[in-house]
Amino acid sequence: MRAIDVSDFGMITPPRDRGPAPELRWLPIEQLVIDEGYQRRITEQGRKNVRRIAEAFSWAFFAPVIVSPIEGGRYAIIDGQHRTTAAALIGVKEVPCALVIADAQRQAAAFRAINANVTRLLKTQLYHAKLAAGDETARTAQAMCEAGGVVIPRTPSNWAEKLTHCIAVQAIERMARNHYRAGVLTLKALRAASIASEVTCLRAPAIDALFDVLVDAPQWREDENALIAAVADLPIDEMLADAKAAATRVKGASARDRLAAALVDAFGRAFQKAA
Q1: Is residue 13 part of a domain?
Q2: Does residue 79 lie within any of the structural domains?
Q3: How does pLDDT run across 79-126, given as a tens digit for each residue?
Q4: What letter does residue 18 receive in the DSSP assignment?
Q5: What's the rounded Cα separation, in Å, for the pair 46 and 205?
Q6: CB-based contacts of 73: which residues, under 8 Å, 6+ apart?
Q7: Phi/psi at 124 (5° precision)
Q8: Domain boundary among 99, 116, 133
Q9: Among 156, 165, 159, 217, residue whose Cα is nearest residue 187
Q10: Boundaries of domain holding 108
Q11: Dist CA 244 CA 249 (whole Å)
């Protein structure tokens, strides 16, 4: 735990006018409206987000809606259209609101400021939040990473750390959902390849390709040490670059599939020699 600390921000010039302090109220959803002069319509992706919010609705996840009073006893939503719609979808009648006094121009400025001044979360930061929340896939992924000697960093890594750090969260979570042992072996092998080549090989296309190969060909998982050594001997970074180039020349091809095919050929040669 840490306290709010502004000691290292330096001097700033505070605004002369902070505006009226907001008032917190529970307001009926039927009194909340959307000013389409500045508010966006709910897109198809937005509708998916609304459904996701509704299906996992919890007041612990519900930030107060920012509204401003307008004529007719109604309130214009400045921020919170999607979560208010989600609440209405499951039958909620009232939502907590922060009521601010602003004309239409000031409302639009507030909408712009709220949506523009958002600190975007990295996928790695979202992963650690899911892990702290006890998400099953994140917990499996974390165990898999620990077994594979790989770290999903909270913050950007330095050069030395990048060889064993991985930010391809979606690729790792995919492995965690589908095949734990193949996932561990994938991470171990690509970690070894990174250290051997001094170039990070823990990238999403490489992870996906090697994982697919190991799931489809379980015989190559039998001798873990031999597989790790075989992958460490391969120029994974160059193979990935070649796969990306080849994929651009063929409609519908992907770097992942091209690299997987190259890995199958390389393993065939390596294990034939070993035999």
Answers
A1: no
A2: yes
A3: 899 999 999 999 999 999 999 888 878 888 777 777 766 667 788 888
A4: -
A5: 28
A6: 31
A7: -70, -35
A8: 116
A9: 165
A10: 23-116
A11: 9
